[in-house]
């Protein structure tokens, strides 16, 4: 029998990632599960993964319930994401990540980032160290909201979610040796207005970005899952009130609390799946 190795996978999705943030805080504080063997997180969920691994659970809640939901962060006319403010002011200055705790974690973590030159997915990991704030900046660099690339190791990167599906993240976890995968999936279909805007943006984007954006719109999130691994999915029980652009605090809080409730709703199943026992 192969050694059991547990992975957590969290998908991207802009402000929809409040859902995964609520679920992760609950997994740590209520179920007391804090150290998976593998963690793979995409785009807007990457910060919650890092703060989960450093056990800064209160800071995850502060980011999503207090700091992020604001017209100062997300603009609609014109569309914009003040990503540098999020990374440099909210995270680096106000809620600093514990670099020492992240360096000590036994969890192998992976963050997909999209190479802007090749269109391929690379992974930042704790085996190939980059500054965590810059990893978060690159992973969240949504083309039509941030409109800039982030340099890591001399290469230019944008949002890792744009070149990957949830199934790709699951296959990556399996490739890294996972035998059980807990998936927290915020990913839902784009609302018609967002899809229309995204297609319009792609018409005027550079060729590589246009290719990636159109591929992202048309891909299937759950195709060709590996058959030789146990998978448990936590996903919204009803449509999330948030979209990529949401900046209404009440809606973000509702998505966060849905993550809390949905995880607790499967508490018995999750505890059995992860082998959590109570003394």
Give a nutshell description of this structure.
The chain is α/β, with parallel strands linked by helices and about 280 residues long. The protein has 12 helices and 10 strands. Strands 1, 2, 5, 6, 7, 8, 9 and 10 form an 8-stranded mixed β-sheet that branches. A two-stranded antiparallel ribbon has the order 3-4.
Furnish the topology, listing elements before pairings:
Layout: E1 6-10, H1 18-29, E2 38-41, H2 46-53, H3 57-67, E3 74-76, E4 79-81, H4 83-94, H5 99-104, E5 108-115, E6 121-125, H6 132-139, H7 143-146, E7 150-152, E8 155-158, H8 166-175, E9 180-184, H9 192-204, H10 207-218, E10 230-234, H11 249-265, H12 267-274
| Percent in helix | 40-55%
Number of strands: 10
Taken as a percent bin, the fraction of beta residues is 15-25%
Rounded mean pLDDT is: 87
Give the structural class. alpha/beta
Shape: globular
- Oligomerization category of the chains in this entry: single chain
- What is the count of DSSP helices, taking H or I runs of 4+ residues? 12
Q: How many strands, what sense, and barrel or not for the largest sheet?
A: 8 strands, mixed
Q: Rg, please? A: 17 Å
Through-space gap between termini: 27 Å
Low-confidence stretches: none
- Write the H/E string, N to C: EHEHHEEHHEEHHEEHEHHEHH
């Amino acid at each position: 029998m192969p050694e059991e190795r547990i992975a957590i996978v969290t998908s991207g999705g802009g402000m929809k990632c409040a859902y995964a943030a609520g679920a992760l805080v609950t997994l740590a504080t209520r179920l007391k599960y804090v150290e998976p063997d593998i963690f793979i997180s995409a785009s807007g969920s990457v910060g919650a993964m890092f703060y989960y691994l450093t056990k800064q659970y209160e800071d995850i809640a502060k980011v999503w319930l207090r700091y992020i939901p604001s017209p100062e962060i997300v603009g609609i006319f014109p569309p914009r994401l003040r990503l540098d403010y999020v990374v440099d002011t909210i995270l680096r200055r106000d809620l600093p990540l514990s670099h020492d705790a992240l360096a000590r974690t036994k969890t192998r973590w992976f963050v997909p980032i999209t190479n802007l030159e090749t269109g391929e997915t690379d992974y930042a990991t704790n085996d190939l160290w980059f500054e965590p704030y810059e990893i978060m900046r690159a992973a969240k660099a949504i083309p039509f909201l941030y409109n800039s690339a982030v340099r890591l190791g001399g290469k230019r990167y944008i949002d890792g979610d744009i070149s990957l599906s949830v199934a790709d993240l699951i296959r990556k976890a399996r490739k890294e040796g996972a035998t059980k995968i807990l998936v927290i999936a915020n990913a839902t279909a784009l609302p018609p207005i967002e899809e229309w805007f995204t297609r319009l943006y792609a018409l005027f984007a550079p060729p590589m970005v246009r290719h990636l954006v159109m591929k992202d719109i048309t891909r299937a999130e759950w195709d060709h899952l590996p058959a030789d691994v146990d998978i448990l999915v936590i996903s919204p029980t009803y449509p999330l009130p948030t979209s990529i652009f949401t900046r209404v605090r009440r809606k973000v809080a509702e998505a966060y609390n849905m993550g809390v409730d949905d995880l607790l709703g499967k508490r018995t199943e999750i505890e059995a799946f992860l082998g959590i026992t109570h003394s």
